[in-house]
């Protein structure tokens, strides 16, 4: 019997499901059991061509509609997503292995927020009037044209919506390629947009690995590329986009610092560290994986952290009591286990976890290392799994310098009751998305993105509009033209 997660076909182009079984088969594996639940096929060159030519043709008419009309489509899509939240969350759990306890509140709901927010903004995307004596300049905020979205595997619904919603609000069309690891959810987003009244061809989904992403990025018809992925992929995609002078948004990896001063509320700080390391089993780009704890409270912090980490419920992700799911793939599990071994070898002190969980599926115990030093591999490289490194510090000046000593700059957090220190420290940290007495909140109203190697551009908020549109300025002369000859 066909599994309920199996989509009707692999791709969604011009308003309908499209199949081409000549492409490389991509198995979809449910991470909680290791069972294959679906198959899709990577896009062949013919499918890529169909998606790009359709999106190119659909964009002009979509951009001619009023912002109010485009916004209405997006807001209807948000309503449909919320009505179907349960089914979409189950699919997200099949796609990623993340527990339903999370997916019910963090995926289709977050996607719906983006559709609603950008739907609301679509009608007010205007230019300005610049008076110049009798003459004047007016500006128009115009769509970029055809945009390509490329997703990572940790938030397949959210990423499709965080890219699709602002792109469509501005009058662009999009071809979205999900991660080959999680190909299912974006197809539902495409289906819902059509149901909500989006013209066929405005939002298309094609499957495939890096080659398909590469074919999309290098096509001359494409005006913008928005990637969520790792830094090495980001460098390749950015370079390929630069060849064609295309706009880019790069949402890449991190190794973010979370700084806990000795006056912090310990339970809140422990809660922040748990949210910033173990949500989605640690597969979150903005995670605060270098937890700097001021020496005076270190042992108290570690004791409370170990106690609360012991309350994680590993189990069937479809059981809403489960609070901690598997790694997305066997490969990702092995990468993370490799880092755990490195941590042990390099002399970090294991506080809890430290091994694969004794159950089916790709589960790793939530793991905390203490006495981690700045040079250890687990303190330098992005692990993308449930491995928290706790480092000690003495002074503010020292911790800020150490926190910034990384190629990454996605996020940073500080826990302290001293508010002048909180703002001063955040002001000195090199990161794009920061938190004071909290960690990992990502409301659509707030800009999200990194500095340094963690990326270029911002998603969400009004900032995203700037990255999916461009300004045309028009000089209007009211009198005669003066010329030298
Ligand atoms: P990845 O870089 O391996 O792949 C990302 C996407 O890029 C996939 O869809 C992949 O098929 C595609 N791709 C690979 N090579 C390509 C190429 N040459 N041209 C075009 N496309 C190509 O990342 P992943 O393993 O899927 O995701 C994990 C990474 O994503 C982590 O580093 C994580 O930090 C990052 N991430 C960042 C954010 C953010 O918003 N900053 C969010 C989630 C994940």
Automatic annotation (TrEMBL):
Q: Spell out the catalytic residues.
A: 251
Q: Name one GO molecular function term.
A: betaine-aldehyde dehydrogenase (NAD+) activity
Residue limits of the Aldehyde dehydrogenase domain?
Answer: 18-474
Q: Look up the EC number in the record and give it.
A: 1.2.1.8
**Gene3D superfamilies recorded for this chain?**
Aldehyde Dehydrogenase, Chain A, domain 1, Aldehyde Dehydrogenase, Chain A, domain 2
Cross-referenced SUPFAM superfamilies, in alphabetical order?
ALDH-like (SSF53720)
Q: Which is a Pfam family this sequence falls into?
A: Aldedh
The biological process GO terms on file are: glycine betaine biosynthetic process from choline
Tell me which UniProt keywords the record has, alphabetically.
Metal-binding, NAD, Oxidation, Oxidoreductase, Potassium
- Name the family the entry cites: Belongs to the aldehyde dehydrogenase family.
Specify the protein name: Betaine-aldehyde dehydrogenase
Native organism: Phaeobacter porticola
């Amino acid at each position: 019997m066909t599994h309920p997660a199996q989509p009707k076909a692999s791709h969604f182009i011009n308003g309908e499901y499209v199949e081409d079984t000549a492409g490389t088969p991509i198995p979809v594996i449910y991470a909680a059991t290791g069972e294959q639940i679906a198959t899709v096929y990577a896009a062949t060159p013919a499918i890529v061509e169909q998606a790009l030519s359709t999106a190119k043709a659909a964009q002009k008419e979509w951009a001619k509609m009023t912002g109010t009309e485009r916004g209405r489509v997006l807001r209807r899509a948000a309503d449909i997503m919320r009505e179907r939240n349960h089914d979409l969350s189950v699919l997200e759990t099949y796609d990623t292995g993340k527990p339903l306890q999370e997916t019910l509140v963090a995926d289709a709901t977050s996607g719906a927020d983006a559709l609603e927010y950008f739907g609301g903004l679509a009608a007010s995307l205007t230019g300005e009037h610049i008076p110049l004596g009798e003459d004047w300049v007016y500006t128009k905020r115009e769509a970029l044209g055809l945009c390509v979205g490329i997703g990572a595997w940790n938030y397949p619904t959210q990423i499709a919506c965080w890219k699709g919603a602002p792109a469509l609000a501005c009058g662009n069309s999009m071809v979205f390629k999900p991660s080959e690891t999680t190909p299912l959810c974006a197809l539902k987003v495409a289906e819902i947009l059509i149901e909500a009244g989006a013209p066929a061809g405005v939002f298309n989904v094609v499957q495939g690995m890096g080659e398909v992403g590469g074919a999309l990025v290098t096509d001359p018809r494409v005006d913008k590329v928005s990637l969520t992925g790792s830094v090495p992929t980001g460098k390749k995609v950015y370079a390929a986009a630069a060849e064609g002078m295309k706009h880019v948004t790069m949402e890449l990896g991190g190794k973010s610092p979370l700084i806990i001063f000795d006056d912090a509320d310990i339970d809140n700080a422990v809660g922040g560290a748990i949210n910033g390391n173990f949500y989605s089993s640690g597969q979150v780009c903005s995670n605060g994986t270098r937890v700097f704890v001021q020496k005076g409270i270190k042992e108290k912090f570690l004791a409370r952290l170990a106690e609360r980490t012991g309350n994680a419920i590993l189990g069937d992700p479809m059981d809403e009591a489960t609070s901690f799911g598997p790694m997305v793939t066997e490969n990702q599990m092995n990468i993370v286990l490799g880092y755990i071994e490195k941590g042990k070898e390099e002399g970090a002190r294991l506080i809890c976890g430290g091994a694969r969980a004794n159950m089916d599926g790709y589960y790793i115990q939530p793991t905390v290392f203490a006495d981690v030093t700045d040079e250890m591999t687990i303190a330098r490289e992005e692990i993308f799994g449930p491995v928290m490194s706790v480092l000690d510090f003495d002074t503010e000046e020292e911790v800020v310098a150490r926190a910034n000593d990384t190629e990454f700059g996605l996020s940073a957090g500080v826990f302290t009751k001293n508010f002048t220190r909180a703002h001063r420290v955040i002001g000195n940290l090199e990161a794009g998305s920061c938190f004071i007495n909290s960690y990992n909140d990502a409301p659509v109203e707030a800009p999200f993105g990194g500095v340094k190697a963690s990326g270029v551009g911002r998603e969400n908020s009004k900032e995203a509009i700037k990255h999916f549109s461009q300004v045309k300025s028009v000089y209007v002369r009211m009198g005669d033209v003066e010329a030298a000859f």
